[in-house]
Write a structure and sequence with these properties.
Elements lengths: L5 H32 L3 H7 L1 H21 L3 H20 L5 H29 L5 H34 L19 H31 L9
Length: 224
Amino acid sequence: DLFGNRVAVLCWGVIFFASFQSISLTMLMPLRYQGITGAGADSAALHLLPLAMGLPLGAFTGGRMTSRTGRFKPQILAGAVLMPMAIFAMAITPPQAGLLSAVFMLLTGIACGLQFPTSLVGTQSAVQSKDIGVATSTTNLFRSLGGAMGVACMSSLLLALLQQGGFELLGNPLLGSLKAGEADPLTQMKLLETFRHLLLGSAGIALLGLLAALALPDRQLRGR
């Protein structure tokens, strides 16, 4: 019966694609940063900090706005619109541009955060009271599935792109075969192009989440 509920199914679709992006980017962005700049693991971890900061900021903002307005679609739609735009901006911005890259990663985190709690609240509001527990667990299931699919698909695509570009790409700081800062410029350029294609594909996948958000009915939360 729950899968016959349009609002619940669309909210699950939104949270699936939001989790797909957030988890896969957590895996991809350090590899991109290390592979292109030759930085160490500590610098790659700091490179992820804006993304990690954006998630709670977006979740807090989305939760407050939902509480005040009694509507969940505007926050979900805002995050779904921002997501592909921010990922596209990251794709065309080299990781050496530290400030710009940090800003776009922060916006990506905010986009994810805007969708996570609001999708859960929208699902809980759309189902009957007796089904809230099952709906909540199913939301968590789709969130976990999205993250798992994101890592699996993006990792497979990364390996496929590296193979097409030649196995000489593997001889770079990505696998620690060269010292930091000593990457060959041609290798760096090929890696930059590889990760650009990968992020553009990720932005395209984020558009599916936007379609789900657009299809959501704009309803008041139950009891408001």
